[in-house]
């Protein structure tokens, strides 16, 4: 009696695990197929990189960033 229930439980567990594995496998395959299809028919356009940020000296910080930080510190100190 107990052995029959254990075999039935093992069978149900096997069916459940196989169905979940199959579903996840199909999901991964379909997502990869969809991704390749979309990339083929709708390629991503490459934009030109902005050169105004990289024109600063090596290791230096852009003057606009320094001005923004200075203004933020000044505003913070005025509130206190």
UniProtKB/TrEMBL annotation:
Organism: Alishewanella maricola
Keyword flag Translocase: yes
UniProt topology in membrane: Single-pass membrane protein
Entry similarity comment: Belongs to the OadG family.
NCBIfam families: oadG_fam (TIGR01195), PRK03814.1 (NF003004)
Keywords: Cell membrane, Ion transport, Membrane, Sodium, Sodium transport, Translocase, Transmembrane, Transmembrane helix, Transport
Domain of life the protein comes from: Bacteria
Protein name: Probable oxaloacetate decarboxylase gamma chain
Localization of this protein: Cell membrane
Gene name per UniProt: oadG
């Amino acid at each position: 009696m107990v052995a029959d229930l254990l075999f039935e439980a093992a069978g149900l567990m096997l069916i459940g695990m196989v169905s979940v594995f199959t579903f996840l496998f199909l999901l991964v395959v379909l997502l990869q197929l969809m991704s390749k299809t979309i990339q083929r028919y709708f390629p991503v356009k490459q934009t030109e990189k902005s050169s105004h940020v990289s024109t600063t000296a090596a290791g230096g910080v852009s003057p606009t960033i320094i001005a923004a930080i200075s203004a933020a510190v000044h505003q913070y100190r005025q509130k206190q």
